Amino acid sequence: MKKIISAAIALCMFSGIALAQKPQSVATTDQVIKAEESFNKLVERKGIKDAFLEVADEEGIVFKPQPIRIVDFYSNIEKQPGSLTWKPNFARISANGDLAFSAGPYVYQNGKDDSDKVFGDYVSIWRADDNGKLKLLMDLGIQHPEPTQTPVSDFTEPDPAKLSAPGKDPAFAGKNIIINTDKIFNHSLTISTLASYKEFLSPEGRYYFPGVEPMIGQDKVMKFIDNEGISINAETINAGRSISSDLAYSYGSASVKQGTVTNNYYYVRIWEMDKDHKWNILLEVFSAVE
Fold first, then answer.
1. Distance (Å, rounded) from C-alpha 238 to C-alpha 249?
2. Rounded average pLDDT per 10-residue block, the chain, 290 residues
3. Is residue 150 assigned to a domain?
4. Within-domain flag for 25
5. pTM of the full predicted structure?
């Protein structure tokens, strides 16, 4: 286990080498919050299908339940009924503004009666296009009973010291580092689930698992995993990293054993580099394969 962790740290430190030349301005989380607000208004005005098609990145995917390109899925369905509203309470953006994510509670209602409401939490990843406009790269969510907890907001701004000169490292060119880190984490899960999360999950990390409200903090996540008797076998599919090498994502498939029951999921992880140049999991969400 120590050899696995040492290898991961070495990879993470290598990925943290900064470029000497700096751009002039740093991005702010307000940019991704505004993108979500605009998206929400589009859904209200144009409906779910047309709104997704308008904001989608050309390579963007949704989980329905298999990962599929947003444009392929929504181009081939009828207009989706019902209303969908959401509000971000957790967000980050890379210093260069090329990669961002937000997460928070949503409510879907297909009818006028409150009994028709479906509650859950969403996670969206955004990527800037050639004009600097954020486009939806990935979208998924979990369902759970009506929330009983007050959402905790976290909109931490990026570190200006992470700014990198544009053109030196094309968007997501360093994704192999994230893929390797993700694979190391997946391998370590087969050795010890709790030890893996203790090493890789950020102290303020969030955990989104179907059927329960999001958990915040390493201690709460590990307690849930321990109490539920969770073990995970996962396989990396793909990953991406920001130009400024301060924010990244990965996703893959996972077989999760919970007690005596095993179910299949897709996972998405948001990675954030800490002050020691180590990549930590800031958020993990599991999308059920039904």
1. 9
2. 51 42 74 97 95 97 96 92 92 96 95 82 97 97 93 93 66 78 98 97 97 97 97 97 94 97 97 94 94
3. yes
4. no
5. 0.89
Same domain, 92 and 187: no
Examine the domain organization and report whether 34 and 158 are in the same domain.
Answer: yes
Co-location of 148 and 242 in the same domain: no
173-196 pLDDT, tens digit each:
578 999 999 999 999 999 999 999
Structural domain that includes position 133: 30-162
CATH number of the domain within which 92 lies: 3.10.450.50
Asked if residue 171 and residue 157 are part of one domain, the reply reads no
Number of domains in the chain: 2
